[in-house]
Write a structure and sequence with these properties.
The complex is a heterodimer of chains A (144) and B (281). In chain A, 38% of the residues lie in helices and 16% in strands. Chain A contains four helices and four strands; from the N terminus they run βαβαβαβα. The mean pLDDT of chain A is 90. Chain B is an alpha/beta fold and 281 residues long. Chain B folds into two domains: 130 residues, no CATH class; 130 residues, no CATH class. Chain B contains nine helices and eight strands. In chain B, strands 1, 2, 3, 4, 5 and 8 form a six-stranded mixed sheet that branches. A two-stranded antiparallel sheet of chain B has the order 6-7. In chain B, helix 5 crosses helix 7. Classes of the chains: A alpha/beta (144), B alpha/beta (281). Chains A and B meet through helix 2, helix 3 and strand 4 of A and helix 4, helix 5, helix 7 and helix 9 of B.
């Protein structure tokens, strides 16, 4: 019997909006899949694409990055920098063969607990539908 | 060639330069190498032809630290490279006398170099003196990148994994690159150790992703990384993919305008959210 492996997702969330949004999802008791592991960063501008690369290489099936909506950054302009960096990092990852469905970049505010739960479920669903051969880049040494 | 020697003689005579960085043919072996010309007497060995592959900009930081005025012979691609260094304030323009020479294409191992195929400019974008023809293409062409983009993600990974597997992690690509000059490279950094030093697929993948990403919007496509690679890893493909991405996303071509800041240094509130992929409300 073949056991379906559940996708593992890394979510990198900014402290002021998206992490608070995830918190709100919890306190409001919205259900979202347990596949998501959250890392808190001070600002989406702190997200170095090396973190995203490392996550894929270490075997995560999907990476999600979320910050404050444009204009709402706690530090003023962090998310504008993040948007440019992520756009370029995404193109590089796609170019070397990471399926575009394995990355999700979005804005979630502290009031959008519902949106956080929805985004997580949608993303997990998408990853469940990807075949094993599409899960490229993971450490060969660890691959089963 | 004559015009170039005459110009350099003039510069030495007027005291405009202390040294000139150029290409010299070794009379004994016939090899063409980068060379520092201190006086005009060695000038008869100076050459400029299809054998002058090296990017001389890599030697500039050491020279400007030692001499107050440095002349440099530039091909089109090297000129773009110099422009990226000037905009990052690594080199002071006042210390440089840029001699742009119309380039007719260079040869690597007897064949036309790959980088010359889609060459955007035969003349350096930064010049104080121009010698020879100026040929420019307006729209960028990335024929090899588009070929890869037609493949499926899994095929693309198969293509690159084969090369990444071969990487020895000698870091020749980093040492030769004029734009790779961090005091402590992320690949040498111990705490946190983002990239394992051993040459295995996972660590090599990290290295090549980071190398390419750090050059996004800065790489002027001089092609030196690929030329010095002992394993012939197609690094220019990744560099070009990002050059294409940066051009499509932000309308910037690194090195073509010596005044334009690298796109990942500046921000724009007008960027659409769709550049990050996916749908956004």
């Amino acid at each position: 019997m073949q056991i379906e492996k559940e996708p593992r997702i890394l979510a990198i969330l900014c402290k002021w909006c998206s992490y608070a949004g995830a918190d709100l999802a919890g306190t409001s008791r919205f259900n979202y899949p347990a596949n998501v592991r959250i890392v808190q960063v001070p600002c989406s501008g702190r997200v170095d694409p090396i973190m995203i690369f490392k996550a894929f290489v270490e075997g995560y099936d999907g990476v999600m990055v979320s910050g404050c909506h444009p204009g709402d950054c706690h530090y003023g302009t962090g998310n504008y920098h993040a948007r440019r960096r992520i756009a370029v990092a995404r193109r590089l990852l796609e170019f070397v063969g990471v399926h575009p469905d394995r990355m999700h970049f979005t804005w979630i505010s502290a009031a959008e607990g519902k949106k956080f739960a929805e985004v997580c479920s949608e993303f997990t669903d998408k990853l469940r539908h990807l075949s094993g051969t599409e899960k490229t880049l993971a450490r060969k040494e660890l691959a089963t | 060639m004559k015009a170039m020697r005459k110009k350099i003689k003039e510069l030495f005579a007027n005291g405009d330069v202390d040294v000139v960085l150029g290409y010299r043919e070794d009379p004994a072996s016939g090899e063409v190498k980068a060379s520092v010309f201190k006086k005009d007497e060695m000038l008869e060995d100076m050459v400029f032809d299809e054998r002058c592959v090296q990017n001389l900009v890599n030697y500039l930081p050491t020279l400007v630290a030692r001499y107050s005025k440095v002349g440099i012979v530039l091909k089109g691609c090297d000129g773009r490279s110099l422009a990226t260094q000037l905009v990052e304030h690594r080199i002071n323009k006042n210390q440089i006398v840029a001699l742009g020479v119309g380039c007719e294409g260079v040869k690597v191992g007897g064949k036309d170099a790959d980088k010359c195929e889609d060459c955007p400019t035969s003349m350096s974008p930064v010049t104080d003196h121009e010698i020879g023809d100026k040929k420019q293409k307006k729209d960028p062409v990335f024929s090899k990148v588009e070929e890869i983009e037609k493949m499926s993600p899994a095929e693309r990974w198969k293509f690159f994994a084969e090369y990444f597997e071969r990487c020895e992690r000698c870091y020749a690509c980093r040492q030769i690159c004029p734009s790779c000059y961090c005091e402590i490279c992320v690949a040498d950094q111990q705490e946190p150790k983002w990239i394992e030093p051993s040459a295995k697929l996972s660590a090599n993948t990290m290295w090549h992703l980071i190398r390419a990403y750090h050059l996004a919007g800065r790489c002027a496509d001089c092609g030196e990384c690929e030329r010095v690679c002992p394993q012939e890893i197609p690094m220019r493909l990744m560099n070009n993919a990002l050059e294409k991405a940066v051009h499509e996303l932000f309308g910037v071509r690194p090195g073509m305008d010596p005044e334009e800041l690298p796109p990942l240094v500046v921000l724009s509130k007008e960027d659409p959210d769709t550049i990050m992929g996916g749908k956004h409300e």
